Amino acid sequence: MAAERSETERARLPSQGEPWAALRERLVQLGAKDVDWRGKRSAVYVFHPGEDVLEVAKEAYALYQSENALGPAAFPSLRRMESEVVAMAIDLLNGPAEATGNITSGGTESILLAVKSCRDAAAAKGIDVRGAKIVLPRTAHPAFDKAAHYLGLLTVRVPVGANFEADPDAMRRAVDARTLMIVGSAPCFPYGLVDPIPALAEIARDHDLWLHVDACVGGYLNPFAEREGVVLPAWDFRVDAVNTISADLHKYGYAAKGASTLLHRSAAQHAHQIFQFDDWPAGGMSTPTVAGTRPGGAIASAWAVLHYLGVEGYRERTRRALSARRRIAEGVSALGLRIHGDPRLALLAYGMPEGDPVSIFAVWKGLYERGWFSGVVQQPDGIHLMLSPAHDEVADRYLTDVAECLAAARRAGGGAEIAAPVRYA
Ligand SMILES: Cc1ncc(COP(=O)(O)O)c(C=O)c1O
Q1: CA angle (130 as vertex; 129, 135 as ends), nearest 5
Q2: By C-alpha distance, which of 238, 194, 236 is closest to 346?
Q3: CB-based burial of residue 54 (10 Å sphere; 0-12 exposed, 13-18 middle, 19+ buried)?
Q4: In whole angstroms, what is the distance from residue 397 CA to residue 331 CA?
């Protein structure tokens, strides 16, 4: 076996290949210091629906790992899988008969394509789109700023209300003649709260704006949470002003990474998403998404997991994720900690009560040292959890550790000097 080199030493292609068994072992070793997500220790980056679903996602991915959805004529299998996944998503999100969409590589690509479609639809109407604006709540994902940066647009981030949700009055005031798009999240990443989409829809109607609902997190969670009795504001195509919805298969859809859906209310809107080119020797090229080559594995994995779980399977996973969030929210509240807003789904952020000398980041650090990995939020400071079904099994252990880390932080004098420990991404 080749000698291990240090991380800083520049890697070179080995002159002789190495046997798979040894390489496999090395791959496992490389992951030894990664967060223990299989042990349910990470509440960010990974979604854990149970080993059976992970196995289905993996096997389906492997079956189609070499196939390429760039070529639907060569791979009618993938074309069919994509159209079935999109149809299921439209059905779940109450889309009209003419709704359509695509599988993309992830939430960021779905958002980029929604913004591009909006921009190009406006340009087709003769609107000057250079430096035009997207108005969004401060809690919306940075993918919108990335999209604006790539597409020559600007974002206007508007502070949220005291309930941590988008403030429709403030957003209405932020809209001007150069605004093209308004955004709400269902839910937002930082606090797990669903923005008041019907109120944003009124603004969209009044100013003829494109309304995008970012349901990257909630697209495959909210429909099942609602079936379990969770009350949310209307957030999907039931709100008639909603133009596009992003919904990630690789989050609460539990598919292998590299899969999201972007859904359009109509084919006319969707036409603005497509890129066409034919002025080169190899013929016309028409691509609906950013990628050229599109991994068949990601599409097959999403198709397989949706079929494997079905409505009942998702409801069961959702019940467990909701239970984890409820138990943790109740547990940290009982310790005197404060929940940011009124989270009803599987995410929450919690921090110290106003005026408490202890830094929540000291608690985060204690939890980290005990093997728990999660994000943080700032202003106000808090610990951020994006919970999976599997977390229901470890909620009590987590709460015991929160109590002990809080007590330790108090004994140590609060830890106000501890800076925000991690940045998201
Ligand atoms: C609300 C929301 N939108 C968009 C994204 C971006 O998704 P991705 O990381 O798949 O690009 C995320 C990621 O966490 C998110 O939480």
Answers
A1: 70
A2: 194
A3: middle
A4: 11
Q: 108 C-alpha to center of ligand 1: Å?
A: 6
Looking at ligand 1, which atom is closest to the CA of residue 140?
A: 1
Report pLDDT digits (tens) over 246-288.
Answer: 999 999 999 999 999 999 999 999 999 999 999 999 999 999 9
User: What does residue 262 show for φ and ψ, rounded to 5 degrees?
Assistant: -115, 125
Residue 402 has a pLDDT of 98
CATH 3.90.1150.10 residue ranges for the chain: 311-411
d(CA 236, CA 142): 21
Does the pTM exceed 0.85?
yes
3-class state of residue 274 by DSSP: coil
Collapsing DSSP states into helix, strand and coil, what is residue 386?
A: strand
CA–CA separation, 69 vs 298, rounded Å?
A: 10
Fold classification of 59-306 (topology level)? Aspartate Aminotransferase; domain 2 (3.40.640)
- Tens-digit pLDDT profile for residues 326-371: 999 999 999 999 999 999 999 999 999 999 999 999 999 999 999 9
Residues with Cβ within 8 Å of residue 162, at least 6 apart in sequence? none
Cis bond leading into 187, ω under 30°? yes
Q: Which residues line ligand 1 (CB under 6 A)?
A: 106-108, 141, 143, 185, 188-189, 214, 216-217, 248, 260
**The domain at 311-411 falls in which architecture?**
Alpha-Beta Complex (3.90)
